[in-house]
Amino acid sequence: MTSSADPTSETRLPLEDYKRYGRQMILDGFGQLKLQQASVVVVGAGGLGCPALQYLAAAGVGTIGIIDHDTVELSNLQRQILHTEARIGIPKALSAAEAIKQINSHTRVQPVIEALTPANAAALLAPYDLILDCTDNLPVRYLLSDVAIGLGRPLVSGAAQQLDGQLCTYNLPLASGSGTGGRGPCFRCLFPRPPAPDMVGSCEELGVLGAVTGVIGNLQALEAIKIITGLHGECAYSTSIRAQLMTLVDGRPSLLMYSALAMPPFRSVKLRARRPTCAACGDEGQRIGGIEEIDYVAFCGGQRTDWEAKGLVEGGGSVTRRIRAKALKTILESEKSVRILDVRPRTEFGICHLPGSINIPIKDLVANPSAHLPSDMSSVGEAHKELDTYVICRLGNDSQLAVDALRSAGVKGNVKDLVGGLRAWAREVDESFPVY
Ligand SMILES: Nc1ncnc2c1ncn2[C@@H]1O[C@H](COP(=O)(O)OP(=O)(O)OP(=O)(O)O)[C@@H](O)[C@H]1O
Ligand SMILES: [Zn+2]
């Protein structure tokens, strides 16, 4: 009998593993033992983390860490496929751990119910060979990139929103002689400055299709498996995955972009080499300093409080320009004629809307306010036409922009927007109104 299916390994796999993993072990150059000896940490057990965890566990990664502070909600189940109706309300890290143990009872699963922060990141991530960024926000993306450099770990980063996604591996060890300083670029090399906060939206605000996060999460697991097993390039077989990572990877990293409706749906952009002046990984230039001291949220332009971000409070706007749901209800129940302008996209208006409301999507309204107004609103100044107007949207942010646009177009009369949007309407006035 031969000593092992992995010709260079010193240790043998348990007998049943030949059966379990045989389909992948016969792939050219595949190192099952390396997967078993590897440890991978997945930060975020949401839309990307769930599919990634599922494939990592099924493929036989020996140790898997799961870091997430959040709990399972009903709105997660459309895409966060490891969680179930029965586990709503329990921490995602525990729910995902339970699910992957059912797939592979041999996996050592290490759930951590904590948010990754500058203070705890290095300690939480250090035990692992490889890091997967499956989170959904920019401050954590920068934090993970900086910590990955400090620890010398590759960082497989995914992002998905609406029908699009991106995949990129940062700090990837390159084959010697590639002239790129031994490692691929970090996130800061490519994005030294974060985009303006207004350019960044969440899945809650912009939407996302579950199968799209599935595509990117799967690709993250695949990248991790390629790096660990040596499929990424010429591999000097070693029982120590960390030692191996220093030498094995061949080829330049690239950014993979996926767009479900495009043809072809995948595009790949070769990344520039590591920037010598990068504040995080560069040899020259200013260094970022101690990670624990960095305020990543402020670096990314600050963060509106949750309440403000969700449009539930007045924010900077004047109170006289806004109305609360209960007050709007009283007005609608009175004899007074008013105009309700709903500025959500047409698809959302089609899902549900208030009776008698008119739909003018915010994009159309802002692009050319006077061209898209209801006909009686464009003839400004005629007293009898000056109906009171109430502008509504989903969360109460776009409606504020719409009021500004209407005023700048010269619309007079009483124009207010609904604080908290239709979300507040459902909560405060009509519980039967759909929340989405
Ligand atoms: N600093 C962090 N540490 C650990 N986990 C994080 C951190 N920041 C974000 N996450 C997690 O990353 C995951 C991102 O997944 P996703 O966006 O699909 O979920 P979500 O935030 O529940 O979605 P939704 O926007 O619909 O509420 C979430 O589970 C979130 O809790
Ligand atoms: Zn860098």
TrEMBL record:
One of its GO terms (molecular function) is metal ion binding. One of its GO terms (biological process) is tRNA wobble position uridine thiolation. It is found in: Cytoplasm, Cytosol. Its cofactor is Zn(2+). ATP binds at G47, D68, S75, N76, L77, Q78, R79, K92, D136, N137. It holds the Pfam family Rhodanese. Binds 1 zinc ion per subunit. Residues 334-434 form the Rhodanese domain. Zn(2+) binds at C186, C189, C278, C281. The keyword Transmembrane does not apply. SMART domains: RHOD. Keywords: ATP-binding, Cytoplasm, Metal-binding, Multifunctional enzyme, Nucleotide-binding, Nucleotidyltransferase, Transferase, tRNA processing, Ubl conjugation pathway, Zinc. The active site is at C203, C393. Pathway: tRNA modification; 5-methoxycarbonylmethyl-2-thiouridine-tRNA biosynthesis. Its main location: cytoplasm. In the N-terminal section; belongs to the HesA/MoeB/ThiF family. UBA4 subfamily. This is Needs CLA4 to survive protein 3. It comes from Grifola frondosa. The lineage of its organism: Eukaryota, Fungi, Dikarya, Basidiomycota, Agaricomycotina.
